[in-house]
Amino acid sequence: MLTTLFHIPSRISFGSESLPLFGFGILLAVVVALGTVLFVTTAARQGWQAAVSLLGGPLLVAAVLVAIVLPTLDDGQGVPIRGYGVMLLLAAAAGIWLSITRGRGMGFDADTILALGMEIFLAGIVGARLFYVIEYHATFFPPGRPLRDGLLDAINIPAGGLVVFGSLPAAGIAAWWFAKRRGLPLLRMADCIVPGMLVGLAVGRIGCFLNGCCYGGPCDLPWAVRFPPESPPWIDQLQRGLLPPPVANEPVSWSLPVHPAQLYAAIDAALLAWLAVAFTPFARRQGEVFALVLTLHPLSRILLEQIRVDEPPALGTPLSISQLISVGLLLLATALWWWIARHGRMCSADVSL
Question: How far is it, in rounded angstroms, from Cα 85 to Cα 83?
Fold first, then answer.
């Protein structure tokens, strides 16, 4: 577990003077300068309308993050760089790279995939965080806590707390709207990017491991792991009475050994990504690669939830909320396979990745 990698100082010194790095400071000036150059270059190549469509949203989001969000994350030592947040960025980069590579053989240029990846990533993060905040709303907005404090914690995504199934509808809507605006075949586009999304999920789960969330139950296997005091598994085990209460001036024990469920999920996502890539040349109709993933991922998630203990049963059933959503996705996958068999377009190009 490595929650915080390091801190970035909030001010940069120049001799006897110092300037703010975040907020309306140095970093915002850099974003504006680089964004302007990139915008003008894209406009010269593809026209102003294309530049606005491709870069307008991402640049605006970047400016808002630098000017408004990052200053709220300062904990007195600077802005902490969380292991979870770093892995999210690496996940996005890895997923977009694979999608661009696959897109070359499926009729999608790199600019299109990059713009799509940015929109899906941002929408997915918002949806995943919103789902998490709703599911654990009592943690963010307990009685008597100032609303401002709860909202600041809610937007502190680098500290951890995303639900994958919350990202799916948001990312799906973003992908549908992107395809509609550009007149692109939605299912073919989904086939192109779904392995990349799985690679991103695999990398992101390593971030969960660094953060200590999405943990498994106690076990005595050789690869079981312990988490330090104040970590989510430690707090959970303390509340369940599995650990002795801390005693003043006495060493605090770590958690009981637990399944590294986060790493199980990372391996699962990586294997599904490999399978989706391997299946691509054999797909006969557009959408079959996506439908395969939509079938297999919920099945593996149902099994993984049997190992995890961080989500209680939901809606009066013995299943967690993630397992219930998985059942719904399986029904959706069944309908998608039926629709593809009756109405799907035949594949016209193969890809090596």
Answer: 6
Token pair belonging to 289: 């690669």
SS3 state at 225 = strand
If one counts every other C-beta atom within 10 angstroms of the C-beta of residue 219, the result is 16
- Judged by DSSP in three states, 218 sits in strand
Averaged over successive runs of 10 residues, the pLDDT of the chain (353 residues) comes to 83 81 88 89 86 82 84 82 87 93 90 88 87 82 83 74 80 91 92 95 93 91 94 92 87 92 96 96 93 96 91 86 92 95 75 59
Torsion of CA 276, 282, 287, 293, to 10 degrees: -30
Question: How far, in Å, are 231, 261, 273 from residue 266 at the CA level?
Answer: 20, 9, 11
Q: Which residues pair with 7 in a beta bridge?
A: 80
Return the DSSP state at 307. Answer: T
Q: Find residue 19's DSSP bridge partners.
A: 12
Q: Which residue has the tokens 């918002």?
A: 126
What contacts 24+ positions apart, CB below 8 Å, involve 244-251? none
DSSP 181: H
Question: Residue 285's beta-bridge partner residues?
Answer: 346
- Pairing verdict, β 17-20 and 11-14: antiparallel
Residues 336 and 353: their CA atoms lie apart, in Å, by 23
